[in-house]
Amino acid sequence: MKYNVLVIAGTTESRQVIEKLLGENPNERILASVATELGKEMLLEYDIDVHVGRLDQDGFLALLKENPCEKIIDASHPFAKIVSETVKKVAESADIPYERYERTNLQYDYEGIVHVKDVQEAITLLNELKGNVFLTTGVNTAAAYMSGIENGAERLFIRVLDNVSSLEGCAKAGYPEGHVFGKMPPFTVEDNVKLIRETEAEVLVSKDSGKTGGVDVKVEACRQTGIKMILIDRPNAL
Predict the structure, then answer these.
(1) Which of 82, 88, 205, 210 is deepest in the core (most CB within 10 A)?
(2) How far is CA 223 from CA 111, 159, 208, 213, in A?
(3) Using an 8 Å Cβ cutoff, are 184 and 178 in contact?
(4) CA separation for the pair 150, 127 (Å, rounded)
């Protein structure tokens, strides 16, 4: 089947893109590509086709060969730089128009924020600081923090999605059971304040994933509790 648009999905923004496309033309033929079943569940209400599975360059090329598309809209997570780079290369090689849908940047007015460029810089800074750390950066980097931070098993507390793979990933990385919080977003300021106090954290770590990623409420929670916030800046746009 030939599609009008391939949407690289799995984010709130991808839902917005799909709703806009269908609002303009209810008969728009849309194929969405998501990495996980959870991403697919986000799109069940729409009359579109969904491909599930993580794809490399060859995988995307095979997907497009089997399902030709007139255009690609990349609405993947702002930190999924490798995915965006791969999809852009695929679009160029297949001579298909490519559009990157960027998440809105926010400005945060809190003097306790320290900006860093990546996980390694965050780890270096955390090793210079004292006290417990509340990680809100997800399971994918959990092992890096645990292996890179001195006394990590004592200092690190992490909130991840409440699913088996995330919880098992934290356990495998060495996080004690009482240091892992399986929760599902969205989170309020009060939710964040509660965990900051429960973990006695003196610093919160977050990626700058914007309002969609709940960064604004994390900032306010840090302000209310008076703790530092390490904010990992977004990769440069393509």
Answers:
(1) 205
(2) 9, 19, 16, 18
(3) no
(4) 6
